[in-house]
Task: inverse folding
């Protein structure tokens, strides 16, 4: 079985973790590796501050707290994304408002934003889905016009670019995941980056139980979202080779595209002229012209020894959100279609061209006899 993803952990990553442990850098309260990783990753994203967290989900929760989202607020969020992108909004008592996907990049449709903004709208969480960036120049113009806080969700898009500028420094904050299947991994872990000094101070306060002086008197009911120093040591090691990793990701994507272009019913990822796609996962859609459903297609691929994952259940269709009083999502027909038709293929950093050819040969074989 070719797995959909396996993390790449090299000897230098293991050595970095061992070195941090030998220095006694166990917790997230002290040690040099944590501050170094925060500073270096923030700088890579074009930001002054990095605040490491326990996961990408808690990074989004922390950013929602720092943004001041709360009861009575509405926050626009990409419809087609992992549920984590909206959980911080929900946990703060605010209302997520799904924004349908646009058909080419599958990111939130910027043409819909202003129609969804109301007097209650306080922010936008824009997800750079599967590694293709949102057009942040255009989004920021809309947000500035309406005085909205923008949080970029870059969990799947480390190093992606908009007109040559790395994502992460456009919005007031940007959140990243370092989960095992991400471009950079610390096993579990995440980070919020920002250029705003006051926001960074608030993020650090809320990450660390709201500790001030005197130590055990707390002005805010905060969180413990601290990343450990030895995780940070692994992240710093992985960050050191991110250019090489992204080159591999784009090469793997090119191998897939060369072999799958023109197949009936197969919708391939695009790269807009202004964008630099990092292809966190190689994603595609299986439409009616393929002669079989996406689910039947994935079953057949598994029988051929190829693992896959489906796209995300869209925000407008999440049962838990329909339990929220007043949740009335706008129609999201594109995101609904992507949920039924989308999947991603094996995308490990270290895939060989022969592995990609095996996957694509299986796809061609299935599509040549879709009814069997």
Result:
């Amino acid at each position: 079985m070719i797995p959909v993803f396996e993390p790449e952990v090299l000897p230098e990553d293991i050595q970095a973790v061992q070195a941090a442990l030998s220095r006694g850098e166990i917790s997230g309260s002290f040690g040099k590796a944590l501050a170094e990783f925060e500073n270096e990753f923030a700088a890579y994203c074009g930001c002054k501050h990095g605040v490491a967290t326990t996961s990408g989900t808690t990074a989004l929760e922390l950013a929602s707290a720092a943004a001041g989202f709360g009861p009575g607020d509405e926050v626009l969020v990409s419809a087609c994304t992992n549920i984590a992108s909206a959980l911080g909004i929900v946990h703060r008592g605010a209302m997520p408002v799904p924004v349908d996907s646009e058909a080419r990049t599958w990111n939130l449709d910027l043409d819909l934003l202003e129609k969804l903004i109301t007097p209650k709208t306080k922010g936008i969480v824009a997800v750079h889905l599967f590694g293709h960036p949102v057009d942040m120049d255009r989004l920021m113009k809309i947000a500035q016009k309406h005085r909205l806080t923008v949080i970029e969700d870059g969990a799947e898009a480390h190093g992606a670019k908009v007109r040559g500028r790395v994502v992460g420094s456009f919005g007031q904050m940007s959140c990243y995941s370092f989960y095992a299947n991400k471009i950079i991994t610390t096993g579990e872990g995440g980070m919020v980056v920002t250029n705003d000094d006051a926001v960074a101070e608030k993020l650090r306060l809320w990450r660390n139980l709201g500790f001030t002086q005197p130590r055990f008197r707390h002005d805010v009911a905060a969180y413990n979202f601290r990343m450990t120093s030895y995780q940070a040591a692994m992240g710093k090691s992985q960050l050191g080779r991110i250019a090489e990793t992204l080159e591999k990701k784009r090469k793997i994507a090119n191998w897939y595209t060369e072999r799958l272009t023109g197949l009936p019913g197969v919708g391939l990822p695009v790269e807009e002229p202004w964008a630099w796609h990092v292809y966190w996962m190689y994603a595609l859609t299986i439409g009616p012209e393929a002669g079989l459903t996406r689910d039947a297609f994935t079953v057949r691929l598994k029988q051929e020894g190829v693992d896959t994952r489906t796209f995300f259940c869209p925000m407008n269709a999440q049962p838990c959100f329909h339990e929220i009083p007043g949740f009335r999502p706008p129609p999201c027909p594109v995101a609904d279609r992507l949920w039924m038709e989308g999947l991603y293929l094996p995308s490990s950093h270290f895939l060989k061209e022969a592995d990609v050819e095996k996957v694509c040969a299986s796809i061609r074989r299935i599509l040549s006899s879709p009814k069997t």
The chain has two domains: 11-239, 242-368.
